[in-house]
Amino acid sequence: MKKEYDFTNAEQGKFYRPIEELNIPVYLDDDIKRFFMKNIKQDNFSLNATVNSLIKKDIEISKQLAKQ
Which of the 8 DSSP states describes residue 20? Predict the structure, then answer.
């Protein structure tokens, strides 16, 4: 490392990305992915949309159970 660095022409925040904008990958277990790919045979099938839908339903169920 140098003793000093010249930041005269530096641009603050040039590479900054707020955490809210990140898309974090989610990796499915092989058996789960195989199940969906094998059993759902639709022309416009979206694994992403299907998994999101299932998770939303699980959240709804969890909220209902928490109220009891």
Answer: G
